[in-house]
């Protein structure tokens, strides 16, 4: 739907960006001019996510995302523009405008949700119908109760090539839609057929209760064992966490992370309603941030086999940068949570969870595995590997405790081990300190960020540093002083710009200013690419580090013109003398100020 500019302005005025962001990540110095936070969009330990209350914007110097309150909600809740507006209206108690006309993108997303929901119902019906015997037998073998099957909306895709397609087309969906929503595929010959066949179906549901995708598991040994929906208008690979729609309501702030969908479902059936799983891929920063918003402690409960332990190690490394406390449950007596619950019962699982060790203990155990500690050579290898693990432990009490344990286990003295750990920490510390110093300096002064922030958004900046800096100054200056556009008329034209990102940003700004409308973050509101919004938010952050005078702008235009002449002469070898002279004259003529 389209919203009037006045409506959006009022909505933005009612939402306080610091308060809004504070619901997702802890704000440091909320009362200061530029409060900081750990970025909810990427993993970090030193905050580089900066809020600018005076213009109600945010920008992350780590990953380069930026925008206003509406952009923030679009990105963090994965909503379309109108959905984000509705979300914020509800939050501040502002009524939505009467006329509800969907824009094309929102309409497509709605269709996709509808098709997914209809498909989930169809799969569920197939599970109960004749033809679903094998799937029902499988669920029975796994001891799933009918109410559990219903709660998770489990279903079955039969072995027909077009059962789902025919069903959804009867409900008014077009072939093209079904292909776009990845419920069907199109063969090289153009035939459209069902994407999932002969699979047990797990609907993946987002936090708003929409079916966003499906996971399909084979009932035999066919590969791949699991198949997930590919990217659609409502789902991207690496987004979302399975069963978080149920688990998010747990009060203790603890989540249990399992490897597979069946494990999660078995855990829920046994009363562990805080169990979740990833979606078959390595954890993305986005998923980690989503998890850390819903718990303070995460217990990894992966399969007991070597593959499961390797996966645990990998996940621990990815999760280490988050603020969550990590623990690892060791599944002795079974191969996965599902099997333990079936063969040993809930009492055993309770015990295993309560004994879950910290991530340090787990890593030290992994280090020791396969090393023969009865030989001197083995002990030295163990100590060297353990030092790396121990040096990463930030808490001094915890570190000291594990140094003692490790020394005891290796049969060495504690003092030399402590020395080795300290040396390794110093080496690590210097690197980390330098990194954090650099980021702090960038965020505080805006000076170093001129280079870094710019390069994220403008790849041409690497090769045209001087020009790109001048262009950024001009653009940041125009945001503060739109009147400079007319004051510099004749001199400040799109072809003065050397890098294409800045040229098109200038064209957008100029169009907006000349039409008498505000040139601010709201100009990239509907149908905008994230990238444009973030770049504009970045340019806003430069506001404090430039003079912002007309004189400065003029000097920047001069810089750009001389950059162009220099580049032209470098390339001059390839063109005739006459052409070269004409080119210089052309550039020169633009230097004369217009009357
Ligand atoms: Zn970030």
Give a verbal description of the structure:
- The chain is an alpha+beta fold.
- It has 5 domains: 5-92, DNA Primase, Chain A (Alpha-Beta Complex); 104-228, DNA primase DNAg catalytic core, N-terminal domain (Alpha-Beta Complex); 244-355, Dna Topoisomerase Vi A Subunit, Chain: A, domain 2 (3-Layer(aba) Sandwich), CATH 3.40.1360.10; 366-430, no CATH class; 450-589, DNAb Helicase, Chain A (Orthogonal Bundle), CATH 1.10.860.
- The protein is built from 26 helices and 16 strands.
- It has a 5-stranded antiparallel beta sheet with strand order 1-2-3-4-5. It has a 5-stranded mixed beta sheet with strand order 13-12-14-15-16.
- Helix 3 (69-76) packs across helix 4, helix 17 runs parallel beside helix 19 and helix 25 runs antiparallel to helix 26 (577-589).
- The chain is globular.
- It binds zinc ion (ZN).
- Zinc ion binds next to loops.
List the helices and strands and how they pair.
Elements lengths: L4 H10 L2 H6 L4 E2 L7 E2 L11 E4 L4 E4 L5 E3 H8 L4 H12 L11 H25 L4 H9 L4 H6 L3 E3 L5 H8 L4 H6 L3 E3 L5 E3 L4 E7 L5 E8 L7 E3 L15 H4 L6 E5 L2 H9 L5 E3 L7 H10 L2 E5 L4 H14 L5 E4 L8 H7 L2 H9 L2 E2 H10 L7 H16 L4 H15 L3 H32 L3 H9 L7 H16 L3 H4 L12 H15 L15 H12 L8 H21 L6 H13 L6
Parallel strand pairs: 12-13, 12-14, 14-15
Antiparallel strand pairs: 1-2, 2-3, 3-4, 4-5, 6-9, 7-8, 9-10, 10-11, 15-16
Zinc ion binds next to loops.
């Amino acid at each position: 739907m389209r919203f009037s500019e006045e409506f959006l302005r009022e909505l933005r005025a009612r939402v306080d960006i610091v308060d809004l962001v504070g619901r997702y990540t802890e704000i440091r110095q909320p009362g200061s001019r530029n409060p900081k936070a750990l970025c909810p969009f990427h993993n970090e330990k030193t905050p580089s996510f900066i809020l600018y209350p005076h213009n109600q914007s945010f920008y992350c110097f780590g990953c380069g995302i930026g925008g206003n309150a509406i952009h923030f909600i679009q990105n963090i809740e994965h909503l379309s523009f109108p959905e984000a507006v509705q979300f914020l209206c509800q939050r501040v108690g502002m009524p939505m405008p009467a006329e509800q006309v969907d824009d094309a993108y929102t309409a497509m997303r709605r269709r996709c949700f509808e098709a997914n929901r209809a498909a989930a119902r169809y799969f569920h019906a197939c599970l109960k119908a004749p033809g679903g015997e094998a799937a029902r037998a499988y669920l029975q073998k796994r001891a799933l109760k009918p109410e559990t099957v219903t709660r998770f909306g489990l279903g079955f895709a039969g072995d027909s090539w077009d059962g789902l397609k025919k069903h959804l087309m009867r409900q008014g969906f077009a072939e093209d839609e079904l292909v776009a929503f990845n419920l069907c595929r199109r063969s090289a010959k153009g035939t459209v057929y069902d994407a999932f066949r002969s699979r047990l179906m797990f609907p993946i549901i987002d936090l708003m209760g929409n079916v966003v995708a499906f996971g399909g598991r084979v009932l035999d040994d066919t590969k791949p064992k699991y198949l997930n929906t590919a990217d659609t208008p409502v789902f991207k690979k690496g987004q979302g966490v399975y069963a978080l729609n149920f688990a998010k309501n747990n009060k203790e702030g603890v989540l249990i992370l399992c490897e597979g969908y069946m494990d999660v479902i078995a855990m829920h059936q046994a009363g562990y309603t805080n169990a979740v799983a990833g979606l078959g891929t390595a954890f993305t920063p986005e998923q980690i941030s989503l998890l850390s918003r819903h718990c303070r402690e995460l217990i990894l409960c992966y399969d007991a086999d070597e593959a499961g332990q390797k996966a645990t190690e990998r996940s621990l490394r990815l999760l280490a940068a988050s603020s969550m406390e990590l623990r690892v449950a060791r599944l002795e007596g079974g191969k996965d949570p599902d099997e333990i619950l079936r063969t040993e019962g809930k009492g055993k699982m309770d015990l295993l969870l309560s004994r879950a060790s910290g991530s340090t203990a787990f890593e030290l155990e992994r280090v020791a595995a396969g090393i023969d500690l009865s030989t001197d050579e083995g002990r030295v290898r163990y100590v060297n590997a353990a030092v790396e693990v121990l040096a990463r432990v930030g808490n001094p009490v915890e570190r000291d405790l594990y140094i003692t344990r490790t020394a005891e286990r290796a049969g060495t003295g504690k003092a030399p081990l402590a020395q080795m750990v300290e040396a390794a920490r110093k080496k690590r510390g210097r690197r980390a300190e330098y990194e954090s110093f650099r980021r702090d300096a960038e965020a505080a002064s805006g000076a170093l960020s001129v280079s870094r922030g710019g390069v994220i958004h403008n790849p041409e900046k690497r090769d045209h540093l001087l020009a790109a800096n001048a262009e950024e100054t001009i653009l940041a200056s125009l945001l503060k002083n739109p009147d400079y556009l007319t004051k510099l008329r004749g001199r400040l034209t799109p072809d003065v710009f050397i890098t294409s990102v800045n040229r098109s940003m200038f064209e957008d700004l100029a169009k907006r200013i000349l039409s008498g409308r505000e040139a601010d973050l709201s100009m990239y509101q509907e149908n905008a690419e994230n990238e444009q919004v973030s770049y504009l938010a970045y340019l806003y952050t430069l506001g404090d580090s430039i003079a912002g005078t007309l004189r400065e702008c003029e000097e920047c235009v001069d810089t750009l013109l001389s950059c162009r002449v220099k580049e032209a002469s470098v390339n001059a070898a390839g063109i005739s003398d006459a052409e070269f002279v004409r080119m210089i004259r052309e550039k020169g003529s633009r230097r004369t100020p217009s009357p």
